[in-house]
């Protein structure tokens, strides 16, 4: 008769061990792919690149302006961006609400050809941020990234992330401001909606004077918006009074 050995078939043992140790690894890899690859590989899918947008390519649904109508009739224009460098304001739509921006700095400098560089900085209830981008004086298009400084403001909202902006002048006067779409993609949230920006003290086309003039007073330690004012003098008075109260405490 035949004798059977004490060990099992090495092929069977290998298969069993492969299933035991390989299956959890496969599950983890699939989970990572489902969660992370859409973020890293397709992060800005559907958003025109800076160059494409500035050169007249790409489309944003629902974006129509008086400038675009004029360009279709009369061809290109040349806009004076440098004259509007300084303090700007604006609003953006999110979660079915209009959010008014604190005033911030926006500077335009001549670059190459019809292009102007866009640089800026500001502070809101998410955190401190910088702005870097370009605009085209021939077609009025604007593209920039708003980059938050990690460790400032609200730690639950500020991931050191970027918000991408694509817009165009409302008319052939830069003083009328810009309108367009913002786009954001982070691990736990992605979204996009309308924005409008305009030089502080100027009026745009959509909201009334009372709605558009907004000056925010922030708590320096938390970046929380303490109060909003339509008048700069009232905002400065409130800020100074708040600081005096904190010093007495």
In brief:
By secondary structure, the chain is of the alpha+beta class. It contains five helices and ten strands; from the N terminus they run αααββββββββαββα.
Average per-residue pLDDT, rounded, comes to 75
Q: Radius of gyration in whole Å, from Cα?
A: 26 Å
Shape: flat
Number of helices: 5
Strand line-up across the major sheet:
1-2-3-4-5-6-7-8
Query: Structural class, judged by helices and strands?
Result: alpha+beta
Low-pLDDT ranges:
35-43, 203-213
Instruction: Report the major sheet.
Output: 8 strands, antiparallel, barrel
Helicity level: 25-40%
Please trace the helix and strand order, writing H or E for each element.
Answer: HHHEEEEEEEEHEEH
Note the gap between the termini.
98 Å
Structure commentary:
With 249 residues, the chain is an alpha+beta fold. Helix content is 27%, strand content 35%. A hairpin with a 4-residue loop joins strand 3 and strand 4. About 8% of the residues have low confidence.
Question: Which secondary structure elements does this structure contain, and how are they paired or packed?
Answer:
Elements: H1 10-40, H2 50-54, H3 66-74, E1 86-94, E2 97-110, E3 115-123, E4 128-136, E5 141-148, E6 162-169, E7 178-186, E8 189-199, H4 209-212, E9 215-218, E10 225-229, H5 232-248
Antiparallel strand pairs: 1-2, 1-8, 2-3, 3-4, 4-5, 5-6, 6-7, 7-8, 9-10
Structure keywords:
27% helix, flat, eight-stranded antiparallel β-barrel, alpha+beta, 249 residues
């Amino acid at each position: 008769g035949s004798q059977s050995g004490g060990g099992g078939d090495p092929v069977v043992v290998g298969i069993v061990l492969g299933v035991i140790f390989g299956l959890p690894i496969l599950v983890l890899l699939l989970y990572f792919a489902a969660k992370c690859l859409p973020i890293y590989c397709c992060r800005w899918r559907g958003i025109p690149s800076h160059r494409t947008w500035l050169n007249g390519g790409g489309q944003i649904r629902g974006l129509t302006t008086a400038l675009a109508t004029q360009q279709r009739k009369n061809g290109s224009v040349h806009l004076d961006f440098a004259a509007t460098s300084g303090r700007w304001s604006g609003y953006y739509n999110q979660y079915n609400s209009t959010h008014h921006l604190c005033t911030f700095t926006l500077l335009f400098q001549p670059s190459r050809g019809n292009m102007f560089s866009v640089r800026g900085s500001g502070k809101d209830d998410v955190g401190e941020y910088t702005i870097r981008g370009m605009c085209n004086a021939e077609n009025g298009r604007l593209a920039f990234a708003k980059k938050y400084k990690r460790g400032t403001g609200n730690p639950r909202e500020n991931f050191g992330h970027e918000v991408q902006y694509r817009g165009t002048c409302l008319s052939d006067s830069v003083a009328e401001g810009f309108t367009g779409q913002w786009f954001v993609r982070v691990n736990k949230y992605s979204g996009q909606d309308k924005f409008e920006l305009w030089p502080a003290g100027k009026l745009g086309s959509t909201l009334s004077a009372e709605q558009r003039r907004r000056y925010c007073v922030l708590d320096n330690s938390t970046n929380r918006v303490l109060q909003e004012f339509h008048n700069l003098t009232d905002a400065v008075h409130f800020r100074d009074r708040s600081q005096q109260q904190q010093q007495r405490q």
